[in-house]
Specification:
Length: 133
């Protein structure tokens, strides 16, 4: 998401779904969009992070999670991702989190993973299983 671009074109900051998406555990990241048109500094991505922090009162952990998500979703080669977020980044849950590189606490990663597994369990439960609960 690019909050500055979205705000300029069609979506007020306070209507932007980024905080709700994060609260639900969706894999979201920040990006830039037309930096020459919407940004005022030489570091447009840092500007997006700064605006997001101010507008949505994001914590340092939130910011680290956004940065980790950005690397996970990027088109970087495997070796680059290993360098930035750890050699085991492809593993699920806490096993894939290198807290020394990501600064995302294991408890946050564990919560996200457990929530995902619970959601998938609900989605793929057979109809006869649903009637029993």
């Amino acid at each position: 998401m690019s909050p500055l671009s979205n705000n300029s074109l069609f979506l007020n900051y306070h209507r932007n779904p980024l905080p709700e998406y994060m609260a639900r555990g969706l894999l979201v990241s920040l990006s830039t969009d037309d930096p020459l048109q919407f940004h005022f500094t030489k570091e447009p991505l840092m500007e997006e992070y700064s605006i997001a922090t101010q507008v949505w009162k994001l914590s340092p952990t939130d910011m680290c999670e956004l940065a980790r998500n950005s690397v996970l979703m990027s088109g970087f080669e495997h070796e680059i991702k290993q360098y930035w977020i750890g050699p085991n980044y492809t593993k699920d849950g806490v096993a894939g989190n290198d807290i020394k590189r990501t600064n995302v606490p294991n408890i946050r990663v564990a919560f996200r993973h457990e929530t995902l597994l619970d959601e998938l369990s609900n989605i793929f439960r057979r109809p006869e299983d649903k009637e029993e609960t």
